[in-house]
C-alpha cells in the first residue's frame, strides 16, 4: 500500500493532465515520468488508487482512461484547505443555487437539544427550527468541494437511546446579505444540496420560494 502522500501526488498529476474534465488518457509509464518513479511503482499506485475508490479506470483502443472520483477530488480540495489554513489565506467562496424543499429532516436534526446548545455556544445563535435547502448549480460544484475540504466550526455528535447523531461542521455565511451558517456532516456526504441555518426564518425574511435563485457567500 502506498503512502497518502504518494496518493496525493499521483492524483494531482492525473488532475493536471485531465484539467477540467477529471478524465485523463494516461499510461503508467507517463505517470512514472511525472512522479519520478519506476513504471512498476506507478502501475501499483494506479491499482491502489482504483482499489481505494480515488479513481476509476477504463481501457480503450486509445489507451487507459483514469477518471478522478469525488473521493479523489476530496484529496485535492482537502490539501487546498490545509494549505490555506497554514498560510492564513482567507477564502470567501460564493455558491449559486436554487431554493428547494427538504423532507423535514433539517427541522428534526436542528431541534435536537444537544445541537442547539452547541449552536448557541459556538455559533452564537439559537436557530430557527428548520434549514433552508439550496440545490447548488452545476457550475458551483467545484466551490462546494472547496468548502467540504475546510474544517469549519466543529459541532460534536452525540448518542441517544435509539440512535447516533453525527458530528457536523458549520461555516459563517450570508444569503442575500443576511447572516447565517452553512452546515454539513463532517463525514463526507456527496450531495449537491447545502443546508443553511439562521436565527431567522430565512424563507420569510427574504421572501423565498421553491425555484428562486440565490447566492451564498461562505467564509472559510
List the helices and strands and how they pair.
Elements: H1 4-18, E1 23-25, H2 28-35, H3 39-51, E2 55-60, E3 63-68, H4 70-86, E4 92-100, H5 105-110, H6 113-123, E5 132-136, H7 141-149, E6 153-155, E7 158-159, E8 164-165, E9 168-175, E10 178-185, E11 193-197, H8 202-205, E12 213-219
Antiparallel strand pairs: 1-3, 2-3, 4-5, 4-12, 5-11, 6-9, 7-8, 9-10, 9-12, 10-11
Helix pairs in contact: 1-3, 2-3, 4-7
Protein architecture, described:
There is one protein chain. The chain has 220 residues and is an alpha+beta fold. The chain folds into 2 domains: 3-68, Arc Repressor Mutant, subunit A, CATH 1.10.10; 91-219, Beta Barrel (Elongation Factor Tu (Ef-tu), domain 3). The chain has helices spanning 4-18, 28-35, 39-51, 70-86, 105-110, 113-123, 141-149, 202-205; strands at 23-25, 55-60, 63-68, 92-100, 132-136, 153-155, 158-159, 164-165, 168-175, 178-185, 193-197, 213-219. The strands form 3 sheets. A 6-stranded antiparallel beta barrel has the order 4-5-11-10-9-12. A 3-stranded antiparallel sheet has the order 1-3-2. A two-stranded antiparallel ribbon has the order 7-8. Helix 1 packs across helix 3 and helix 2 (28-35) packs across helix 3.
**SSE class:** alpha+beta
CATH homolog superfamily of the largest domain: Riboflavin kinase-like
Tally of separate domains = 2
Low-confidence stretches: none
The first-level CATH class of the largest domain is given as: Mainly Beta
CATH architecture of the largest domain: Beta Barrel
Whole-Å distance between the termini? 33 Å
